[in-house]
Amino acid sequence: MTQETEAAGLTVDELAARAGVTVRTVRFYSTRGLLPPPAIGPRRVGRYGPEHLSRLALIEELQHQGLTLAAIERYVQQLPPGLSAEDHALHRALVATWVPDAEAEVSRAELERRAGRSLTDDDVARLAAMGVLERTPPDAGANGAGPGAGGGDAFRVDPAVLHLGVRLLDVPIRLETVLTAREVVQEHSRAVARELTRLFRDEVWEPFGEADPDPEQVETMKSLSAHMQPMVVQALVTAFQRSMKAELRASFPADRPEDRPAE
């Protein structure tokens, strides 16, 4: 899909195709209030934007987590109005954080279906460089019956970052810059994880004072750690978001003298 088509908005058929759902599903979600109403274009045709696509992705993620329709409705009702596609993506990332790592092996056609667009060989190479996917041997799969059977392209894909990687394909930034940014994030994420783990060990584990805790204590610690992880990630995301906004305001202040209109 071209940028012009994206800017003009999607029809309900195009939205459904991009999201991998049926038109009936889109209309059903709309009647339940799970999707914001579309913009009405010429000839009273509803037009949907990136925020609708991101909302559908969020709903899909909530379903994967096992939430019922009623629970999803309650979750969506608590979202602030006017969320952008980026805001929805952030919510989806937080929900997907607790999904166990589950790489999928897919064909080229399935990869493009999941990406919601056609992918050139250069696009695939960029996604591979970003660690989103890797090409697998043509005979991969059990008894040669997997996606690579028959000599077609087959890829091992990380579903958690596929949509992020696809969106980065359209960002006018050199691949080297994207990879450098990825290294920065990974380096500091590991440092934060190490420090938080040390604090958890010193404040929670060490007070037991036993070199060889019994199995019940181990299970208690695992349960406490699992309970704390969502809160820690939420705090990290919120802190990073606020820090990023502060850095951007400091780097690109709106009231710089050169930005003011001439009198």
Structure in a nutshell:
This protein has 11 helices and 5 strands; from the N terminus they run H-H-H-E-E-H-H-H-E-H-H-E-E-H-H-H. The chain has 263 residues and is mostly helical.
Structural shape = globular
Secondary-structure element pattern, one letter each: HHHEEHHHEHHEEHHH
Helix content: 55-70%
* Rg estimate, integer Å: 22 Å
Stretches where pLDDT is under 50 for at least 5 consecutive residues are 1-7, 140-151, 259-263
- What's the N-to-C terminus distance? 43 Å
Overall structural class, as computed from helix and strand content, comes to mainly alpha
> Biggest sheet: strands side by side, in what order?
3-5-4
Which key features would you list for this structure?
263 residues; mainly alpha; Phenylalanyl-tRNA Synthetase, Chain B, domain 1; 59% helix; 6% strand
Describe the structure.
- By secondary structure, this protein is mainly alpha-helical.
- Helices cover 59% and strands 6% of the residues.
- It contains eleven helices and five strands, in the order αααββαααβααββααα.
- The model is unreliable at 1-7, 140-151 and 259-263 (pLDDT under 50).
